[in-house]
Fold this protein.
Amino acid sequence: MQRLRSLLIAIPVMTVLNTGGVLAHDFPLTIVDDRNKSVEIAQLPRTVASISSFGADVLVSLGRQVDGLSILGGQQSDFLGGAAVDAVNLGEVHQTNLEVLAQLSPDLTIGLRTYTEPFEQKIEEAGAFLAFDLITLEDSLRGVERATLALGAESQGSELNERFLNDLESHIERAPGGISAVFLWHWGDVPYAFYSHHLTGHIMTRLGATNIQGNPPRGMAPADSSAISMETLLRLNPDVILSFKADDGPFVSHPAWPRLKAVRNNRAWRVGDQYVMPHGPLARQMVLKEMAYLLYPEHFPAPKDIPEPAQARAMDFER
């Protein structure tokens, strides 16, 4: 990590031109994405679509408009705070509406390789396309670096990365540790627990909490999570539970839930989808600040800059 951080700090600031509040350097430029594909950006993108919240997060962080955006569970990400409310709806993140994307015809589309791989040729027909793999902290830093470069704002991208690394170190120094936790996402009645190499799990462990899911087994590094049984969850019995589910309904009831100490101690939280997709500049800052508070409420204040619908609240269960 220290090496990566040093490299980021050492990135030279290129000569830039200011064009109407948007920093732009000389185009065309070529960016290699996580398909190992060289993508030519012919000119400063004027219209940009985002398949997943990551690209929208980067655009909003730069004060740019989001022209097209996918949804999750039928809605935009709450942590964007309505900044992308005027964006064209591109459909669910795993099933892009290619007709709508073609009509929008954005200069640039930023997406996740996982969700876009089957449709990448169609997406490329609409305009330039950058596909990223986003799981780890390093993925986040490199994704922000390349996305902001494509948007003519690489110096701002470097600043956003450096600011997050500084804030992470500051929180690590203040976190007392000595606590266990887990981050779950729920698919039907099956909970999945995120490993420690996923950025949210990484932040959890760097804050001194023991992630009961630990690291992925050998050969499973590309996976960010795996199913965890309620029996295992009860046996490991973490102090704090963070949970995400795409719909707003209550969590599926199970006899183990009321026996978990996190539930008994009112430390089981429903969190926003920024925890699932924490790799953009806004999302990772929100996850860091809110998780520090949820783990150590006596040491960190509740963050005040998270939109209310995206703030953590107590888990509720079916009756």
In short: The first strand starts at residue 17 and ends at 19.
